Amino acid sequence: MHWIRPARMALAALLGFGLLVPARPGPLAPVAYLEAYPAVDARLRAAGPPYDGWAAAGRRFLAFEPHGDGLAVEVLGDLATADRIVVLVPGVGSTLRDFDRGLGGVARRAPARQAAEVYRALHTAAPAARVAVLAWLGYDPPDTVTSAAGSAAARRGAAGLRAEVRELTDRRPRARITLLGHSYGALVVGLAARDAPPQVTDVVTLGGIGLGVDRAGDLGRVRVWAAEAPTDWIRRVPQVRLLGLGHGRRPGDPAFGARSLPVTGVAGHDDYLTAGSATTAAVASVVLDGAGARAVTR
Fold first, then answer.
1. CA distance 27 to 93
2. In the chain, what percentage of residues exceed pLDDT 70?
3. pLDDT at 250 over 60
4. pLDDT-based confidence at residue 92 (cuts at 50, 70, 90)
5. Closest alpha carbon to 68 in 89, 106, 97
6. Residue 48: which residues within 8 A CB-CB, separation 6 or more?
7. How much is the average pLDDT of 145-149?
8. Do strands 131-137 and 84-89 pair parallel, antiparallel, or not at all (unpaired)?
């Protein structure tokens, strides 16, 4: 591989800081299902504001942990009847504190709001569809871009996500599952998709840092989709993997071989799942028909 000098310098800075910022162990998402709702509801109420308000509003969670950076797995829709299930995994900097309000107080960056947009788009496209969306903050993401140079947090997250998927497929064996990862969350879903059960049909990445493989075909039968806006800063991250740091080629790079999703109107790194965006509608199409009716052919 031949690197130009600026790319080498950028890589050195990224990996150097990554070495200085140790990955923090985080809680794995517990395996839970519908029986978890009452117990988690009680924990939300006991935790006080704002979490007691989530319970009072009738929101449903499979998991909730308020300590440390926290974790939460919220369910939109009815898992007991769903035949299409989406699991949305957020990226760097995501914590329980920002689950609703968004990182830095920016609403469009909130996992709960992004999941709600996907759920809304699914019902707009197919009102009678039996769908469920999980906003899955079931791992402890890295705090910063520099500490995200390593994959340790993603591997811990992938282990928890695989356990969640196994529970879902045990309970809903005929459901089709789409794993949807934003930024560093793409690495989590990519690692979790390795040797996934056949119910996992699609992996969708939004501004993804990597999938833990060199090409889309390395995930076998799983279809891989990627949305990467021209103005997304993720394009400036060096595409290397060295001594366990860096994540190789981005899924949004045409050479990776993923199916491309439209990004018309998307600006920057955090606008993919906003109301009415072309990407949100395309994600819904992938989930519902598996054919990506709105996808872009490369």
1. 15
2. 79
3. yes
4. confident
5. 97
6. none
7. 57
8. parallel
Q: Which band of pLDDT confidence, cut at 50, 70 and 90, is reported for residue 241?
A: low
65: left (phi over 0), alpha (psi -120 to 50) or beta: beta
Using H for helix, E for strand and C for coil, what is the string for the chain? CCCCHHHHHHHHHHHHHHHHCCCCCCCCCCCCCCCHHHHHHHHHHHHCCCHHHHHHCCCEEEEEECCCCCEEEEEEECCCCCCEEEEEECCCCCCHHHCCCCHHHCHHHCHHHHHHHHHHHHHHHCCCCCEEEEEEECCCCCCCCCHHHECHHHHHHHHHHHHHHHHHHHHCCCCEEEEEEECHHHHHHHHHHCCCCCCEEEEEEECCCCCCCCCHHHHCCCEEEEECCCCCHHHHCCCCCECCECCCCCCCCHHHCCEECCCCCCCCCCCCCCCCCHHHHHHHHHHHHCCCCCCECC
Token pair for residue 157?
A: 């997250």
Q: pLDDT tens digits, residue range 199-238?
A: 999 999 999 998 989 999 999 999 999 999 999 978 777 6
pLDDT at 263: 94
